[in-house]
Amino acid sequence: MKILKKILKYLVIILVLLFVGIWLYTKSQKPIYNGEVSIKNITDEVTVYFDDIGVPHIYATNNQDAYTALGYVHAQDRLWQMELIRRIAAGRLSEIFGEKLIATDKLFSGLGIEEAAAKTIENLDKNSEPYKMAMAYLKGVNQYIKEGKTPIEYTLVGVKKEPFQLKDMYNVFGYMAFSFAIAHKTDPMLNEVKEKLGIAYFNELIDVETKNLTTIETDKNAIITSTFSEAMHNLTEVLPISPFIGSNAWVLGADKTKNGKVIFSNDPHIGYSQPSVWYQAHIKTPSYEMYGFHLALVPFPLLGHNKTYAYGLTMFENDDVDFYIEKNNPNNASQYQFEGDFLAYKQVDKILKIKDSKDSLYTIKVSKHGPLMNGIIDHLEDERPIAMQWIYTKLENKILDVAYEISHSKNLEDFKKGAKKLHAPGLNMMYGDAKNNIAWFASGKLYNYRDSLYTKAFLNGSSGKDEIISYIDFEENPQAINPENGYVYSANNQPDSIANKLYPGYYLVGDRAERIVSLLEKKNDWTKQEVAKMMLDVTSLMAPKIAQNFVDEIEKNKLSVSEKTAISILKKWKGNFDLEEVAPVIYNRLVYEFQKNTFADELGNGFFQFVNTPFVEKVLPVQLKREHSVWWDNIHTKNKVETKKDVINTSFKNAFNFLQNQLGENVHDWKWKRVISVEHKHAVGEVALLRKYFNVGPFKTNGGDQVINNQIYNVDSTGFYKVTAGPSTRRVVDFSDVENSIAIIPTGQSGRIFSSYYKDQAQKYLKGEYVKMKLNTREIKQSKQILLLKPLK
Questions:
Q1: Best exposed site among 73, 98, 230, 695 by fewest CB in 10 Å?
Q2: DSSP letter, residue 289
Q3: What is the predicted pLDDT for the residue at 166?
Q4: At 495, is the secondary structure helix, strand, or coil?
């Protein structure tokens, strides 16, 4: 008995010690939000007030100290996110995740992002403010790396911390630019249709680019002085950092608001992840103030506001990537032909370091148009040399200046000067200010080819006839300043014409744009609360029209009672994607079956890439209205030529039978909430044992694809819609009450799992709630969490 008591006693002691050890470890893993820390590279004390959602409000006596402090607090909350994002463009993910990331690393390291960054950094003005503030920020980040607690993820994956450099910052810009581009998923698919199926199939697809357009009008006025595609898809799908996808923004002028002041709103659509993409921070010095939303490792916010102006962005979706078929010298594979001469490929040797494996060595060939995809995408079936020309790596890079200038502007003219310097990626820069100016600039370096050249198929690299002829002056870019209609907006839709023609791009279907315009036009007395509610709108104007087109073709006399119920629900649908609605479930499955029965027989494996490109959403309404189409006939059926009616009726039958098997006999129970969900995934959450600790969710979520509250998912054979992207933040800035402007992010401010701000905003986000973006100094200084950063003597 005594022995048993001793054993129990020791077990209790061990358990207590284990509990205390775990408790101490979790405490050490939390960022420091209170107390004093001495750091290098600051000249005076900096006070950081953390508010009730963990946003740092940085008060410093000079800008350089403020940016050093920003780097420090940003790193303590998001160091692991910084680590991952700097590795993507450099091709260094397989160092920590092993062989499964080799192909992705090979692609990104071959794009020339690092080489372009090195050239840019070499030519930077080292005395400029953007450079000095960027370096101050990096010093703060590196100070935390040296002195701060190592995030648990480093231990779990077995990677050592290493200092960050300016090239890492440019790697972030490069990844952002590439993730904005759509060409690498669309052009190879369209080219394959043209070459393998023929011009009739190709022409029907590209015809949709001039149909059903909702264009953003240019209106400049005075300023108020007051398989290839499959490979690309597969390689980018495995990235542990969110891609940039779409976005909404609208800015209401004084005449459209109840209080007679500008209201600014913006919700960039980005892949969901944990931590969320944006880090919020408020800087205040004697000469500068900005409440900003920062990308990991970027000191200057791409979204922000102060008491003077607000700005944000959406993706322009212009075409800044082109693919060229090169022609090798038949006698020398290290040369290619251009305008009758043979030029030597530049050859770049690359080394990939791989966890638990030998280094991988490979060589990239680079033509005047760019790197050959054949060398950086394994098993590319097309044996022709295919080069990728990308404006981001082709032209001078001033993106650091752009980010600095748009976040340090004094007025609209300053902001426009910053926007003008952007070459790539193309962005819609949105602006509103306290003097009642509103503006939209489609920023990015646009260019001309010869007339009639269609740039979404592969171009001829040897003839010299498919080259860029000229670059367009920024003043000719689509833009609007204080337009007569009283508002500016963007939903990634087609902008107005340039020089009497529509500029080529990968603009999204005009559904969100049409809905935004229809709502804004109705009212001239908007309030902040009404704008915030509008950002949660889940109604599509186009979807009911498409549903009606289906209904009109379905043979009703052959339907069962339950099938007629499904048809009735579709017919009455107003296009809303609410959780209790049944119609979205029927609609999405019917769309999938229709697209499969229309395109899959010709496209084969390529169908699964095609059906989840933004391009197919433009094809759908146009294809539905065609009575005659080369796509209607199923090439696999003999002695029969299918018609539009055949395809739609077969698709409805297939959709109905699938949903009965999936969701049961009762059609009224096929509710949207049963099939849609969202999970914010962490890079180490892919390990089953760690998923519930690091991932946030899964949750049921309101919204649908291409409504204002845009919840983006793949439409596939599963019948479930796992949301992968959506509003990365919702922001509303009201200049009649700017200190009470509001925002929300999908999960939380911190990337540290033991921080109380890891996922504290998740439920608020799902419910459509907002939190205050504090600017009032008296209110900020009432914070209970104060971190004093002192110069290390």
A1: 98
A2: E
A3: 98
A4: strand
Amino acid in the structure at residue 442: A
110 residue type, one letter: G
Cβ neighbours of residue 10 closer than 8 Å, sequence gap 6 or more: none
State residue 510's pLDDT score: 85
Q: Is there a contact between 509 and 540 (Cβ–Cβ < 8 Å)?
A: no
What is the distance between the alpha carbons of residues 504 and 317, in angstroms, rounded to a whole number? 9
175: helix, coil or strand?
A: helix
Q: Is the peptide bond before 268 cis (omega within 30 degrees of 0)?
A: no
pLDDT of residue 214: 46
How many Å apart are CA 401 and CA 387, to the nearest integer? 29
Q: How many CB atoms lie within 10 A of CB 9?
A: 10
For residue range 80-104, list pLDDT tens digits in order: 999 999 999 999 999 999 988 898 8
Strand 321-325 to strand 459-460: parallel, antiparallel, or no bridges (unpaired)? Answer: parallel
Contact 481, 412 (CB under 8 A): yes
Specify the DSSP element, H or E, that contains 202.
helix 199-206
How far from chain centre, in Å, is Cα 517? 23
**H or E stretch including 206?**
helix 199-206
Instruction: Tell me if the pTM is above 0.85.
Output: yes
Q: What is the 3-state secondary structure (H, E, C) of 365-425?
A: EEECCEEEHHHCCCCCCCCCCEEEEEHHHHCCCCHHHHHHHHCCCCCHHHHHHHHHCCCCC
First to last CA, the chain: 61
Cβ neighbour number for residue 428 with a 10 Å cutoff: 30
Closest C-alpha to 704, from 576, 553, 610, 601: 576
3-state secondary structure string across 597-621: HHHHHHHHHHHHHHCCCHHHHHHHH
- E-strand ranges in 86-235 read 219-220
Question: Which parts of the chain have pLDDT scores under 70?
Answer: 1-2, 4-29, 181-185, 208-244, 379, 381, 497-500
Q: What are phi and psi of 232, to 5 degrees?
A: -60, -45
State residue 225's pLDDT score: 44
pLDDT, tens digit, for every residue of 722-765? Answer: 999 999 999 999 999 999 999 999 999 999 999 999 999 999 99
Angle between helix 644-663 and helix 542-553 axes, rounded to 10 deg:
110
CB–CB of 31/755 below 8 Å? Answer: yes
CA 568 to chain centre: 37
**For residues 589 and 659, what is the distance between their CA atoms, to the nearest angstrom?**
8
Q: What is the pLDDT of residue 329?
A: 96
